[in-house]
Design brief:
This protein is an alpha/beta fold. The chain has eleven helices and seven strands. The chain has helices spanning about 30-40, 60-65, 70-75, 80-85, 110-120, 140, 160-175, 195-210, 220-235, 240-250, 260-265; strands at about 20-25, 45-50, 75-80, 90-95, 105, 125-130, 145-150. Helix 1 (about 30-40) links the parallel strand 1 (about 20-25) and strand 2 (about 45-50). Helix 1 packs parallel to helix 7 and helix 5 (about 110-120) crosses helix 7. It starts with 19 loop residues before the first strand and ends with a helix.
């Protein structure tokens, strides 16, 4: 993905310590890689893998990570889930199925609020994700403090690992950054049009439509003018857009427009 040259610094700032992602016995390197890519999208780097079936390191994982090499290079591998979460203070277990284990159940947005709250106190938080085929077993869920489940269709609840990681990482980032976006419309480069400019556009357009006998029958003109003006008011036009629209109207009027500089220089 191409880099944005004008990233808003507010979007770089997040509150608190970022959570770890723990993949429990993943089977495919590709799934590890796509999970790492999802983490990188939202600023997570602490990826822990418990007993990966195909071993580690994995070139398939690196290729699937799509240049999220900083996450892949930082991977820690553990033989047991207990070892993987030993240094964490609070752990969520992600699952799409109801469990016999009595624990609080949160949606990903609620879990993100909790994770950020703990992270601002510099407490280590983690999300555990289960195997591709059957997720986490009850003994593994029992090691967690709370359960995270997504508001999916109960009749088709299964997500792949990367999808589940992405949703949880997205909710964490949105909460930790207070929803700041990496870029917005730059109003200095694209200032909104003044009301005077917009009114002149209206007058220009309506005059051209009068010439074209658009307003028929004439008694309907006030209503049709209000409708047209309302359409353009909703658009929140910039100065550049108003100029472009007036150029369109002029072209439809078959008026001679100003010659371009290049054409001028050729004539000279």
């Amino acid at each position: 993905m191409s880099k944005n040259a004008k990233i808003r610094e507010e979007a770089r700032r997040v509150r608190g310590r970022a959570p770890a992602v723990i993949l429990c016995e993943p089977q495919l390197g590709e799934n590890i890689g796509t999970a790492a890519r999802a983490m990188a999208n939202f600023g997570l780097v602490d990826l822990r893998i418990v007993n990966p079936r195909d071993g580690w390191p994995s070139e398939k994982a690196r290729a699937a990570a799509s240049r999220a090499d900083h996450v892949i290079d930082n991977v820690q591998v553990f033989e047991t889930l207990e070892a993987a979460i030993a240094d964490l203070t609070f752990v969520f277990a992600t699952t799409a199925r109801s469990r016999e284990v009595p624990k609080p159940v949160r949606g990903p947005d609620e879990a993100a609020v909790k994770a950020v709250e703990l992270g601002t106190k510099d407490l280590a938080v983690g999300y555990i994700f289960g195997r591709e085929r059957w997720g986490l077993n009850n003994e593994e869920v029992a090691l967690a403090d709370e359960i995270v489940t997504l508001p999916v269709d109960p009749d088709f609840a299964s997500l792949n690992i990367a999808q589940a990681v992405l949703v949880c990482a997205y909710e964490w980032r949105k909460t930790a950054s207070q929803g700041e976006l990496p870029f917005r419309l730059d109003e200095e480069e694209h200032p909104p049009a003044t009301k005077e400019d917009v009114l002149r556009l209206f007058e220009h357009l309506e005059s051209a439509l009068d010439e074209a006998t658009f307003f028929r029958p004439p008694e309907r003109r006030p209503h049709m003018v209000r409708t047209l003006r309302n359409i353009f008011q909703k658009a929140s036009l910039t100065e550049q857009e108003v100029r472009a629209l007036r150029g369109v109207v002029a072209a439809l009027e078959k008026r001679e427009t100003r010659p371009r500089r290049q054409e001028k220089s050729e004539e000279e």
